[in-house]
């Protein structure tokens, strides 16, 4: 997943991002592992925290929503 490589590049832990984006860490880990979707509000908050466009962080959702 692209988000993981961005976090590694920025030196941000998954737990840190979850907390800053106001997402329960357990839910965040389930989304990372494909057990839950990244809901639109989550994607928005994550992109705000990281200062990157949603389409860059979540290209798989951008493609689905463009159809």
Describe this structure as you would to a colleague.
The protein is mainly α and 67 residues long. Helices cover 70% and strands 0% of the residues. It has a single domain (2-66), classed as lambda repressor-like DNA-binding domains (434 Repressor (Amino-terminal Domain), Orthogonal Bundle), CATH 1.10.260. The chain has six helices and no strands. The mean pLDDT is 91.
Approximately how much helix is present in the residues?
A: over 70%
**Which fold name corresponds to the CATH topology?**
434 Repressor (Amino-terminal Domain)
Overall pLDDT level:
91
N-to-C CA distance: 21 Å
Multimeric state: single chain
The level-1 CATH class: Mainly Alpha
CATH superfamily: lambda repressor-like DNA-binding domains
How many DSSP H or I helices? 6
Pattern of helices and strands? HHHHHH
The residue ranges in which pLDDT falls below 50 over 5 or more consecutive positions are none
Strand content: under 5%
Number of strands: 0
Could you provide a short overview of the structure?
70% of the residues lie in helices and 0% in strands. It is mainly alpha-helical.
List the helices and strands and how they pair.
Elements lengths: L1 H9 L3 H7 L4 H8 L7 H11 L3 H4 L1 H8 L1
Properties at a glance:
single chain; 67 residues; mainly alpha; 434 Repressor (Amino-terminal Domain); 0% strand; globular
């Amino acid at each position: 997943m692209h988000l993981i490589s961005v976090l590694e590049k920025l030196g941000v832990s998954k737990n840190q991002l979850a907390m800053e984006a106001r997402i329960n860490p357990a839910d965040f880990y389930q989304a990372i592992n494909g057990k839950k979707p990244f809901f639109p509000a989550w994607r928005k908050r994550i992109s705000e925290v990281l200062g990157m466009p949603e389409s860059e962080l979540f290209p798989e959702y951008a493609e689905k929503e463009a159809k």
